[in-house]
Amino acid sequence: MRGTRRTRLCLAGVMAASTLIATPAARAAERTDGHLTDLVNPFIGSQDEGNTFPGAAVPFGMVQLSPDTGHNTGYDYTQNRIRGFSLVHLSGVGCRIGGDLPVLPTTGDVTRTDYAQYAAGFRHADEQAGPGYYRVGLDSGIRAELTATARTGVQRYTFPATGRANVLLNAAQALHRPGGSKVEILDDRTVRTEITGHGFCRDTGPYTVHTITRFSRPFTAYGTWDGAKVTVGARTGGGGAFVRFDTTRDRTVEATTALSYVDADGAAANLRAEGGRSFDTVRRRAREEWERRLATVRVRGGAPALRRTFYSSLYRSFLAPNAGSDADGRYLGWDRRVHRARGYTYYQNWSLWDTYRTQAQLLALLAPREARDMARSVVQVDEDGGWLPKWGYGPVETNVMSGDPVTPFLTTAYQTGLLKGFEERAYRALRKNADGVPPAAYPGIGREANAEYLAHGFAPYVWNRPLAKMGDSDYHHGASVTLEYALADAVLAQMARGLGHRADAARYAARAQNYRTLFDPATGFFRPRDAAGAFTGTSDPARAPGFHEGTAWQYQWLVPHDLPGVVRLIGGERAANDRLDSFFAYDRLLADPARTAREVWVHGDAYAYYNADKYNPMNEPDLTAPYAYLSTRQPWKTTDVVHAALTLFTDGPTGMTGNDDLGTMSAWNVLSSVGLFPIQPGYDTWGLSTPVFDRVDLALDRRFWPGGRLTVTAPGTSAADRYIQGVRTNGAPHARTYLRTAALRSLRTLAFTVGPRPSEWGTAPSAAPPVLK
Questions:
Q1: Contacts with 495 (C-beta within 8 Å, 6 or more apart), sequence order
Q2: Which residues touch 594 (CB under 8 Å, ≥6 apart)?
Q3: What are the residues facing 751 on neighbouring strands?
Q4: Most exposed residue of 13, 88, 300, 645, measured as fewest CB within 10 angstroms of its CB?
């Protein structure tokens, strides 16, 4: 009877699942040549706390030149005044950071120095954006255009025919909390700044950025300001500078600003290396670079809105991490000393708690050369500064978020072959991190609760423990931290075993079972323990404390290394499936997937992490949860849940339901749309679900993926025909619900046969993903 009822519900909801809800998109850049860049809408996620930015950048660029409207992280589509076009933004972060050197063109006298007061009005009807380009018409009659190289931002301003056209360079205001600034007018074309900032969720830092701006023609007047006082003719100041141009005949001014985290010489060298080109040349090259990057994935089928959301997500997945080394290879290390990256690009900005679950794997697949350099950079952080990062911004540890995210990040690199030549260097750093805590003098907390975890098998939940260092504390999230440490131990055990460190492997594998210490048989859920080892807090799993940005309901599936063990704790497959069905509101989902996603899973607030017993598709703890059904022998439900969650991605400004977190949610969309998802973060297991496109061609780098190309097909895939009937790999039947990286390396074709009803595919015990032992 349960199977019959399920089939009826599947058919009732079949027309609604996988439907993409389209919203009106903001105008994108000119769409006349059919390029993949024409499918990208950078305004997606710029409303309702997606926290994306619409400005100009190249893949993984140091510079992300974009307008700031006064929102916490830069741009908010609902606002209509631009304070300036600043150099640094992080796509989708949840706390203010960056916004360095907001530049704004104005006309008339310069009388105000607060960018909230001199901000310029604009209308979305006169605004365009595309990969590597942004344009807006300001109410003042000025047209502003932005483009970028890796280390420079290029602006073009077209002024009204007036003799008093200004460009304001505000060194003292930004998205972060300023810590001091200097501005110097070097000659009649050049302005230099030094900006120190603090911030990102807590008062972390400081860090310093150096800029140099070169204008396309001499200015006719200039001045600087300190506080509210503007001094015409002054060459130095602490707040900002203005430069003036005569635009009665020539109305256009171009400027190139180079950025360095090292020193003023680094900014100047970056300007020499990447500057000196016209705006149109830089714009064309940025577009070409994005076209090459997006062309690594070509899809066929799907509605136009679906393709727009897909390629926009793919675009955002390539925005971070960001180049941290200058054109000459110099970078500022975590020891605050200058180092030189030889033979690789040094990267920075490590949102590891977010990215280790999706984006790290996507970049390993589609951008392995850069992903290798990123992994090498993380190892270099340890070798320069003494410990691996947790959430690093530039050369600064912020200690934001909890657990041990750097371990699955680096073991993902190991499992995908990105650490060749420095595996042991990476392993030494990981072993030190897993078995200890950073010294008191080091700014990072690492595995802050490691002493208790190693002694007793759990990180205690101590809600009122004073912060030892600025940032988040693992003790404030003891329950989820225990699960995160255990996951990290599980994947580190696999790396240790692969490198021949058998004793370590056995030790870490045993520690990976520490998730069991949190299980309360009285409630059937994980619960936090206090310092004495007693379960603490309410017994209601929807309201239990100690879970970072989530509840016991949401974190119960964050044991991807041993889901069969979790199933046994819960009471077996039937009990686990019943709980999963309740968690996803499965019956309601089948009847109306899109409405269930928006009204049951999502509650309108991107930061509504707590007091819930349902799936939260907006946030990281639940990213792998839909794939738990692969371990309970009901793989068709994974497709149902994934396709319902995909309806939350739309092609307008509200097209993301939560923070993108440096491409994390976008990568989830890309991977789930392709039907190939990293279900055991930090290991090499890729879960299978129904693709949303008839065909996807992945162009892979042969240096890392010997097959060179992977074609994923699912002819006829649709809301009506979304259930896997069978899978073939290189033409041979494939009965398992997953692939291993070793198989993926030689794979040329992954073919799904789909139909209108669930099948027996993937339901055998041998089809389930492996347990990491």
A1: 411, 414, 415, 427, 430
A2: 16, 19, 21, 644, 647
A3: 713, 728
A4: 300
Write out the residue range of the structural domain in which residue 97 sits.
Answer: 36-294
pLDDT digits (tens, 9 = 90+) for 217-274: 999 999 999 999 999 999 999 999 999 999 999 999 999 999 999 999 999 999 999 9
In the three-class reduction of DSSP (H, G, I as helix; E, B as strand; rest coil), residue 193 is classed as strand
| Residue 137, domain CATH | 2.70.98.10
Q: Which of 242, 248, 240, 192 is nearest to 219 (CA)?
A: 242
- Which amino acid appears at position 722 of this protein? R
Q: What is the pLDDT of residues 492-502, one digit of tens each?
A: 999 999 999 99
Number of domains in the chain: 1
What SS3 class is residue 501? coil
User: How many Cβ atoms from other residues are within 10 Å of residue 27's Cβ?
Assistant: 16
Q: Average pLDDT, stretch 415-429?
A: 98
| Residue 670 vs residues 432, 449, 748: alpha-carbon distances, Å | 34, 35, 19
Residue 33 pLDDT greater than 50, yes or no: no
Is 87 contained in some domain? yes
Answer yes or no: is 676 within a domain: no
Q: Which residue has the tokens 């750093």?
A: 429
Answer whether 341's CB lies under 8 Å from 348's CB.
no
Concatenate the DSSP letters of all residues of 596-661 into one string: HIIIII--S-TT--SS--S--TTSGGGTTGGGGGGGTT-HHHHHHHHHHHHTT--SSTT--SS--T
Query: Is 737 within a domain?
Result: no
Q: Which residues contact 600 (CB under 8 A, 6 or more apart)?
A: 585, 588, 589, 614
Q: Is residue 522 part of a domain?
A: no
| Measured distance CA(692)–CA(300) in Å, rounded | 10
